[in-house]
């Protein structure tokens, strides 16, 4: 049993009755908390433990699978004779399997896991309907797996981001997602906190928005260009209202939490939330600039894309100003490192998106690899980084001991940071080169393709670094969960580098 | 901490507001356009797809052709799709009334295909190109689709089967390549892709608010 001066993150200990009331009191006082407050947290963590760990494990499985699909697709773009004998591995199918595995498998499962852990913590109660949530997660996972197998077998509904067949994967996704949502709403309904923290709005919003979007995207009666409108309404908003909403919700929690200071401005967070909903929801048609749709629709989306400055700047000020003056803390906390970088990537990708929607920019970048690079800044450097950061924070609190290896954390961070940097720079450059070549009718078409090849090779290299980073993280997660009792460490990694974090004196000295 | 008057502390208000905003966006960008598009009719020159072409379209979808090929021509005032020889005019909503779902595409790793039947009408060319794109263009990075074909002994070809005459050094030795029905359907679909017939000026106009006519992606800046 740990001494009171080395506080264990022990929800498990509490749940298993390993901590006595006196010990809870000792830990609480070492952190400046009332014992009842610590007790609330321990109970919250214990209630969500099984569902969250299961979802994280599933998410990491999808991350590895999805990354391998991504590598195969990336290699095929510069070496097209790689793996062509079987229809299951043709570029158009592997690419789509990659998109589904990483967005609906990895990111969705990881962020749902994060939400199931956050919600009870934020509303001071236990997770309600745990079997419902776990059952929902199982159904959702079956739905994603079925959708990916169908796509690989050549059964696709044909619209980007919506390929998984509606009559096969649809029921699993709707019922599975619905059950998870039910558990979350039930938890909020039985809340004991009076206040609803910012993150709760985003999680609630995400679970209201996603079913609406899926219904609209999968509606089976669209004809011609109206299916294009529905397609990009869904495909754009699933990023903004599902992945982004949950990730921003996470960033709003972890940054102030790890730093031990309040969020910069409560008012700005309200502005950010509602203006995101209002402007992001009208953005989708900017994927069809110049296309055969009514001009007013495309113009509406371009205008809304520019208005995205409002929520993005509001959220950026809020998240970045909370960190300003405390960047040293990034050395100490892997959570902070990933989430703060993720928040920067969110600001960057959103501003980039607003500019890309402008017609003058779009005529160069539309139909090129620029868009793919852009989506990876969003889905990876932002969403995936926040998910990594969340997992570094949450898992120790669920298994009751700390991450075993500082070296593995360093390897994970360095590999994925280098990987995504190479990926985005190389592919953005290739996209602009491609776009400029396509815009010049005197340049033969094959030139637009040749000019992308160095960027595509570099992208494969970046992708392989990401793969290595993911394998390191998955291995670390595995040994973390499986560590034998005697090898468990109770001190957080990098504690020796700990800068002044939560003391009132430090805050006073800074002022 | 608690604020009695804080509206953002009421679950129902947050949930209702979130729902209402999304519902209004759906109305603006999906429901209203869907109502408007009812008025869009096909030109007499645009024949519906045949059974075989629809099968071919499904093969196009199944193998993800859309991830490298678009099917839309943008206004010449805005960009150079027409100068590149991909079509003679911008495409309009009328050109797509038989498309379920749309295959407009968002990527041009390969060229646009909405008029590929006009440009490349030869069935043999398409079959050779699908079997081995690099037998046609050494620089191509298109995937080969050997699984849409069968390798046969030369004396094992039945009457009515389509033999694919692969030319040059990349021709497989000692075997004859026969197109499977999927390959024939796909090519039938590809050579049917033609959106070159003339359209009325009224359909082109950038202010065609009522029915679409959004071909003027350039807005005022390039006119």
What would your notes on this structure say?
- The complex is a heterodimer of chains A (511) and B (223).
- With 511 residues, chain A is an all-alpha fold.
- Among the domains of chain A are: 1-33, no CATH class; 196-510, Up-down Bundle (Cytochrome C Oxidase, Chain A).
- Helices cover 73% and strands 0% of the residues of chain A.
- Chain A has 18 helices and no strands.
- In chain A, α3 packs antiparallel against α4 (91-122), α4 packs parallel to α6 (169-189) and α8 (225-259) runs parallel beside α11 (309-323).
- Chain B is mainly α and 223 residues long.
- Among the domains of chain B are: 9-37; 129-185, no CATH class.
- Chain B is 30% helix and 4% strand.
- In chain B, strands 1-2 form a two-stranded antiparallel ribbon.
- Chain B starts with 10 loop residues before the first helix and ends in a 19-residue tail after the last helix.
- The model of chain B is unreliable at 209-223 (pLDDT under 50).
- The chains are: A mainly alpha (511), B mainly alpha (223).
- Chains A and B meet through α3, α4, α7, α8 and α9 of A and α1 of B.
* CATH-defined architecture of the domain at 196-510 in chain A: Up-down Bundle
Q: Share of helix among residues of chain B? A: 25-40%
Oligomerization: heterodimer
Stretches of chain B where pLDDT falls below 50 for ≥5 residues? Answer: 209-223
Q: Please summarize the sheet with the most strands of chain A.
A: none
- Structural class of chain B, please? mainly alpha
Overall average residue pLDDT of chain B:
88
- Number of strand elements of chain B: 2
Distance between the termini of chain B: 58 Å
Tally of contiguous helical segments of chain A: 18
Strand content of chain B: under 5%
Instruction: Report how far the terminal alpha carbons of chain A are from each other.
Output: 39 Å
What fold name stands as the CATH topology of the domain at 196-510 in chain A? Cytochrome C Oxidase, Chain A
User: Stretches of chain A where pLDDT falls below 50 for ≥5 residues?
Assistant: 1-16
In what range is the share of β-strand residues of chain A? under 5%
């Amino acid at each position: 049993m740990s001494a009171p001066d080395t506080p264990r993150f022990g929800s498990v200990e509490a749940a298993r009755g390993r901590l006595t009331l006196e010990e809870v009191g000792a830990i609480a006082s070492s952190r400046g908390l009332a014992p009842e407050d610590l007790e609330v947290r321990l109970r919250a963590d214990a209630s969500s433990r099984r569902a969250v760990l299961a979802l994280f494990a599933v998410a990491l499985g999808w991350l590895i699978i999805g990354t391998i699909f991504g590598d195969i697709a990336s290699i095929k773009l510069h070496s097209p004779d790689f793996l062509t004998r079987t229809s299951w591995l043709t570029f158009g199918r592997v690419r789509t399997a990659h998109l589904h595995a990483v967005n609906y498998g990895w990111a969705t499962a990881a962020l749902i896991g994060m939400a199931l852990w956050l919600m009870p913590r934020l509303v001071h109660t236990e997770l309600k309907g745990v079997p419902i949530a776990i059952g929902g997660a199982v159904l959702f996972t079956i739905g994603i797996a079925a959708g990916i197998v169908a796509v690989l077998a050549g059964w696709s509904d044909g619209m980007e981001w919506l390929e998984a067949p509606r009559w096969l994967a649809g029921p699993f996704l709707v019922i599975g997602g619905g059950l998870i949502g039910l558990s979350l709403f039930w938890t909020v309904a039985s809340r004991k906190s009076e206040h609803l923290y910012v993150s709760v709005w985003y999680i609630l919003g995400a679970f209201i928005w996603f079913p609406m979007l899926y219904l609209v995207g999968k509606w089976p009666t669209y004809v011609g260009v109206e299916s294009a409108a529905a397609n990009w309404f869904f495909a754009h908003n699933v990023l903004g209202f599902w992945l982004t909403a949950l990730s921003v919700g996470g960033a709003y929690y972890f940054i102030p939490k790890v730093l031990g200071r309040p969020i910069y401005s409560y008012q700005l967070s309200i502005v950010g939330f509602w203006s995101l909903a209002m402007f992001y929801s009208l953005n989708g048609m900017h994927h069809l600039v110049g296309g055969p749709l009514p001009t007013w629709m495309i113009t509406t989306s371009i205008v809304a894309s520019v208005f995205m400055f409002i929520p993005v700047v509001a959220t950026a000020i809020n998240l970045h100003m909370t960190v300003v003056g405390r960047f040293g803390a990034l050395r100490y906390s892997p959570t902070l490192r990933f989430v703060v970088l993720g928040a920067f990537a969110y600001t960057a990708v959103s501003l980039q998106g607003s500019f890309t929607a402008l017609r003058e920019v779009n005529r160069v970048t539309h139909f090129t690899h620029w868009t793919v690079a852009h989506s990876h800044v969003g889905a990876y450097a932002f969403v995936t980084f926040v998910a990594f950061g969340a997992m570094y924070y949450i898992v120790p609190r669920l298994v009751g001991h700390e991450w075993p290896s500082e070296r593995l954390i360093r390897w994970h961070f360095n590999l994925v940071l280098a990987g995504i940097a190479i990926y985005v720079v190389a592919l953005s450059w290739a996209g602009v080169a491609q776009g400029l070549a396509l815009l010049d009718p005197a340049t033969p078409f094959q030139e637009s393709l040749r000019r992308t090849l160095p960027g595509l090779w570099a992208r494969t290299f970046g992708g392989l670094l990401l793969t290595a980073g993911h394998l390191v993280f998955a291995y670390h997660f595995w040994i973390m969960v499986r560590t034998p009792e005697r090898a468990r460490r109770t001190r957080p990694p990098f504690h020796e580098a700990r800068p002044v974090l939560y003391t009132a004196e430090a805050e006073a000295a800074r002022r | 901490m608690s604020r009695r008057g804080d509206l953002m502390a009421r679950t129902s208000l947050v949930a209702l507001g979130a729902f209402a905003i999304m519902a209004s966006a759906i109305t603006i960008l999906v429901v209203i356009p869907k109502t408007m598009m009812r008025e869009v009719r096909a030109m007499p020159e645009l024949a519906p797809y045949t059974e075989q072409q629809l099968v071919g379209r499904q093969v196009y979808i199944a193998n993800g052709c859309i991830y490298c090929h678009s099917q839309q021509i943008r206004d010449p005032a805005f960009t150079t799709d027409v100068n590149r020889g991909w079509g003679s005019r911008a495409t309009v909503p009328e050109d797509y009334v038989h498309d379920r779902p749309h295959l407009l595409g968002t990527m041009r790793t390969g060229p646009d295909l909405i008029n590929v039947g006009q440009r490349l009408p030869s069935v043999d060319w398409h079959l050779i190109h699908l079997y081995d794109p690099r037998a046609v263009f050494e620089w191509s990075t298109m995937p080969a689709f050997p699984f849409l074909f069968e390798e046969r002994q030369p004396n094992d070809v039945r009457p009515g089967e389509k033999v694919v005459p692969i030319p040059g050094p990349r021709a497989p030795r000692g075997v004859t390549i026969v197109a499977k029905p999927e390959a024939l359907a796909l090519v039938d679909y590809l050579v049917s892709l033609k959106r070159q017939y003339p359209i009325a000026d009224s359909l082109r106009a950038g202010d065609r608010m009522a029915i679409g006519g959004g071909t003027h992606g350039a807005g005022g800046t390039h006119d």
